[in-house]
Structure formats: structure tokens, C-alpha cells
Amino acid sequence: MFLPWPCPNDAYEAAMESAIARARRAGITHIAFGDLFLEDIRAYREERMARAGIEALFPLWGCDTSVLAGDMVRHGVRASLVCVDPAQLDESFCGREFGSAFLKALPSQVDPCGERGEFHTFAWDGPAFTTPVFVEPGEIVRRDGFVFADLWPVQSEVAPA
Description:
This protein is of the alpha+beta class. It has helices at about 10-25, 40-50, 65-75, 100-105; strands spanning about 30, 55, 80-85, 95-100, 120-125, 135-145, 145-155.
């Protein structure tokens, strides 16, 4: 689904309701979310899904995020940080790969999965991928209080060096 920029909450909710209605018409009865421990976010998703007749699933709920982050790296999930909240994490982390070195460098007050919005990632390879989505770093920009890292697709089947 496409979201406008800027995207006020009412526009986001309208777009989500439309996407969920399409899913429901297509026979979808359950949607899984990767939320880990924020009760208010879970309640919001459950309420929205229930209104649409869809059951919300939370297969990772309650997982220890330090263990989960390490497991993702050990099992081959490859991701890049595409957004950092500089009020919670130094902007130099933006654009880095989510991996062992990243986890070791992460300040102790930052959730290793970014569950409180410290950072967001783009996963580009891992066990669930048939083929990687090869990307290369682009520009890093500051906008609306956040730091964003562009990723551009690589038009080759060989990973960038």
C-alpha cells in the first residue's frame, strides 16, 4: 500500500482499512504482526483487526529482544538501518548493517530490536527469502527529527562489495 507524505494518522488509518478490507475480501482471516512488548500497540492492532473481521496474531510477543536479535543474526537475517531516531540512538548508526558488530556497538538503553522506535530496518536477505534483494547505500538525510538512509536496488545478481 502507498502512503502519502506527509501522512497524518487519519490518512494512514484510511489506507490501512482499505488494505485490510481487500485482504478480507481475498479470504485472509489472520494477520501476523512482529510486535514484541508494547501493550498499547498490540491493543490498537487487535481492535483494528477485530473491526475488520481479521484475527491478529503475535508470534514473537514476549520474546527477549536481546536473544531474538542475536538469533536473527545467527540465522542469516540481513538488514540495514534505514531510519534512526537521534533522540534515542546516535545518527551514525543510520545506514549500518544489522549484525553482530551493530549489536555489540548498541548502547545498553537501546532495544536491540528497536521496539521503542529507536531505529527501523529494511531486511534484504535471510532464510525466508528466495533470493536477496541486493541494495547499495544512498544518501543519508535528516527530516522531521529523524535520520533516514536511502537504499537503492542493485541491478545485478551479484552482491555489492
